[in-house]
Structures are given as structure tokens and as C-alpha cells.
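Input C-alpha cells:
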């Protein structure tokens, strides 16, 4: 309904989608009249009547008369017709998204009718990001879809094949217009039967808790995983970033309460990869900083299973930054040391004499239970009782808390506050900067 500029724009979209179009309006634009002639459409000259809707499947009201548009909406809904009243979201049972057309690839952007201008802005941005040649890439993939399905019947390995193909050198050849070379490379890959059915493992550093600290590569691999193994140190928000149909396996890892022993986790990674699955092992912080990532990849390497290690922001960096405690500072500390708060046999045994430099920051991981020993041993071997100490609980999350004291009184403060793991202990002069530099969370600084 309508024949002006707005109606012409809608008609252009509908005709391109293959619609048979009837336009009801006393007058129509010259362009609209030409389009109807080219696509065997009908111009029904005259004013709108309810009977105009009887043969319609889809109704668009684009007249300049609000009352007519409302009448079209009421009549269409009474006849159970899908109806769109332009620029009136409350009078729509369907909407037109903005479209980026890379035929046969289509990208639709919708604001649910709330801001058409915003969707057009986003469309321009996406058009700049997605070259026109992506349509050629989609057609290329379509031509070989059945062949790949016949060669790789299992869904997981087949999806992995396509992801590697569409993000690798074959796709680059297609985008550059060299489809014959791309086809040759694709057939060569399909001929490597052993590689087609092999899985892969990614040890991914999930960071200290805040999902925004995840790296781009970590997020991309998480979206492609068939199986995700995660533990208590990985936030639920990060696990939720995995592909919706990915299998999620909780493997525990709490001090003195490992729901799945480390040896079983190592073997599980091997077993899943040998089933042809793409496996992401999410590790809190960084896999190689007290994450036991080295133990896990040893068994993968022994079985010749492909793997990648994706670094993450380790807890020391994340928690210290969010607590306003720089680990190094020209006036306070010229080095930093990461130390395990407890060892393999649940003891806290270190060369305490090597921890006496007042210009070095000490960061103890997993040191909550060992805190009394840490404070006592550092003092016994020469550190001043007034040495500042900070305990960061649930660092980088909305639940972050910072407890500040000294080697002399920190044990008492922790007993009163009763913080819960995960925690990080920072010892050194840099802790004095916390009060003036902190911007995140609540701190107990008595």
C-alpha cells in the first residue's frame, strides 16, 4: 500500500527476493512503475480497501496517511496476514532488516524496528569488513559441500575441515580469483585421510576472571570447539562463550579436592582428540603459569596429537592491575617473582633467604592456607614485619575484594575477613600504592 519513495524501497527488496508484487495506490513513482513492468507486477490504481488483502501473503503499509496505515494493520491482523507498517514498530508483525548482500551470502542486521538509521550505519561498517569476493567463497564451498560430506561423514571432523578451509590458504586463493588452484588444494586435503579424521587440542588461557580479558584468539577457538574442559577457576561467563552445541565437561581442580585427577584430565584430552574432536582446555589465568599446562601437553606430544597453547593474562597481572598495585615501579620495585603458595606435597618450602630483596615484589599463587607460614618465614629470614601485604580475592571480577596489611598482622586480618579462594598474595613496597591507585572493587585497608 503506497507508491512513493518509501514504498519503492520496500518494493525493490521484495522483488529481489522473488515476490510477486501488487501495489495499491492512486499514484506511484516512475521507478516503481518500471520495476512492476520488469517483474510482471500489478499496479492497482485507487485507494485502499480491505478486499485488497485477500490474495496477499505479506502486507506492507507505506502510505503517507497514518490512519490508512493503521487500518491496513487492523485488517491484516484480522485476516492473519503478516504486516509491516513502515516506521511504526508497534504496528508490525514482521520487520525488514538491513541487508549486506554478498550473493549467495546474506547478512541481516535488525534493531527490532527501534532504530533503522543505526542498522544502516552498521550495514555500512559490515560492508566495509566483508569484501564482495566472500560471495564467491560461499559459492565455492557450496559446490564441494556434498563431496566433503561423503569424504568426512562425521560432523565434528567435517566442521573442523571447513573451518580450516574457509580461514586458510584455500580461501585466500578463492578470494584472489584463483579458484582452480583452490580446488586443487582442496582435493589434496581431502586425499589426506589420516589428517581428515584427527582432532586437535587447544590449551587456552582464560585469564583471571573478567571475560573482557580473553584474547581474540582464545574467543575464536572457544567458538569452534566440539568439547570444552573447564575448572573452578574459569568464570561461567567465559564458559558460556563456547559454541552452544559444544559439550562442556567440568573437571574440578580445587585444592585437596580434585574432582578429576590431573592424570585423568591428561588422558581425557588424548581420548577426545583421537575421536576427531576439537578440544579446548580452559585454564584460569595462563596455562604455563602454575596452570600445569606443561603436564597436559606432554602426553599430547607423546601421542603426536596436534595442539596449540594460547597465552592468557595471568592472575598476578590481572588482579594487581585491578587492585591498583603495579608489580614493578621505579621508586618501589625493579623486579617481580611469581611463587607457588604451596608445593606438590602440600608444604610451603622455599629458599626463604632468596626472598629478602626490598626492591622485589613477591606474588604468591594459591597461598591462602599457607599464608601464616609465608608471613612467619619471611620475617624469620630478615624481612621487616612492616612489609606491606595485599590479599586479592576473586581478582578482576565484580566480587573482587582487597585486604591490605603487613607481614606482622596479615594472618589476623585474614582470620577476621575469612576470604575465599581464589586469592592472590602480593608482598612488597608496591602495595603502598594501592589506596591511591585502586579503582576497582572494595578494599579493606585498615
Amino acid at each position: 500500500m503506497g507508491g512513493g519513495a518509501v514504498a519503492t524501497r520496500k518494493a525493490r527488496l521484495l522483488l529481489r527476493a522473488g515476490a510477486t508484487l501488487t501495489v495499491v495506490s492512486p499514484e506511484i513513482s516512475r521507478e516503481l512503475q518500471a520495476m512492476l513492468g520488469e517483474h510482471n507486477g500489478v499496479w492497482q490504481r485507487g485507494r485502499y480497501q480491505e478486499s485488497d488483502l485477500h490474495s496477499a501473503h505479506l502486507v506492507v503499509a507505506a502510505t503517507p496517511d497514518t490512519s490508512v496505515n493503521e487500518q491496513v494493520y487492523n485488517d491484516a491482523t484480522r485476516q492473519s496476514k503478516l504486516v509491516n507498517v513502515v516506521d511504526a514498530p508497534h504496528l508490525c508483525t514482521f520487520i525488514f532488516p538491513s541487508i549486506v548482500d554478498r550473493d549467495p551470502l546474506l547478512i541481516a542486521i535488525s534493531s527490532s524496528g527501534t532504530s533503522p538509521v543505526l542498522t544502516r550505519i552498521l550495514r555500512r561498517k559490515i560492508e566495509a569488513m566483508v569484501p564482495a569476493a566472500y560471495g564467491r567463497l560461499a559459492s565455492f564451498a557450496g559446490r564441494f559441500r556434498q563431496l566433503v560430506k561423503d569424504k568426512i561423514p562425521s560432523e565434528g571432523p567435517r566442521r573442523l575441515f571447513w573451518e580450516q578451509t574457509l580461514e586458510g590458504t584455500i580461501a585466500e586463493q578463492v578470494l584472489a580469483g584463483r579458484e582452480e588452484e583452490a580446488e586443487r588444494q582442496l582435493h589434496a586435503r581431502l586425499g589426506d585421510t589420516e589428517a581428515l579424521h584427527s582432532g586437535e587440542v587447544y590449551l587456552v588461557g582464560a585469564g583471571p576472571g573478567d571475560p573482557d580479558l580473553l584474547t581474540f584468539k582464545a574467543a575464536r577457538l572457544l567458538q569452534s570447539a566440539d568439547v570444552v574442559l573447564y575448572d573452578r577457576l574459569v568464570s561461567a561467563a567465559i564458559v558460556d562463550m563456547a559454541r552452544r552445541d559444544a559439550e562442556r565437561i567440568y573437571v574440578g581442580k580445587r585444592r585437596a579436592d580434585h574432582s578429576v585427577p590431573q592424570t585423568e584430565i591428561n588422558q581425557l584430552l588424548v581420548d577426545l582428540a583421537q575421536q576427531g574432536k576439537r578440544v579446548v582446555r580452559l585454564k584460569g589465568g595462563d596455562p604455563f603459569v602454575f596452570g600445569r599446562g606443561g603436564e597436559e601437553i606432554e602426553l599430547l606430544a607423546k601421542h603426536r596429537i596436534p595442539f596449540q597453547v594460547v597465552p592468557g593474562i595471568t592472575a598476578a597481572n590481572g588482579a594487581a592491575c585491578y587492585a591498583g598495585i603495579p608489580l614493578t615501579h621505579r621508586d618501589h620495585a625493579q623486579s617481580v617473582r611469581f611463587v607457588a603458595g604451596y608445593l606438590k606435597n602440600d608444604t610451603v618450602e622455599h629458599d626463604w633467604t632468596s626472598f629478602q630483596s626490598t626492591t622485589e615484589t613477591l606474588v604468591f599463587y594459591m597461598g591462602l592456607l599457607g599464608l601464616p607460614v609465608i608471613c612467619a618465614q619471611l620475617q624469620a629470614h630478615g624481612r621487616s614485619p612492616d612489609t606491606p601485604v595485599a590479599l586479592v580475592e576473586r581478582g578482576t571480577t565484580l566480587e573482587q575484594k582487597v585486604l591490605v596489611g603487613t607481614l606482622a598482622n596479615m594472618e589476623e586480618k585474614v582470620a577476621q575477613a575469612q576470604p575465599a579462594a581464589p586469592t592472590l598474595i602480593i608482598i612488597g613496597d608496591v602495595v603502598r600504592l594501592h589506596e591511591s591507585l585502586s579503582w576497582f572493587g572494595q578494599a579493606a585497608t585498615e
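The longest strand covers residues 200-205. The radius of gyration is 31 Å.
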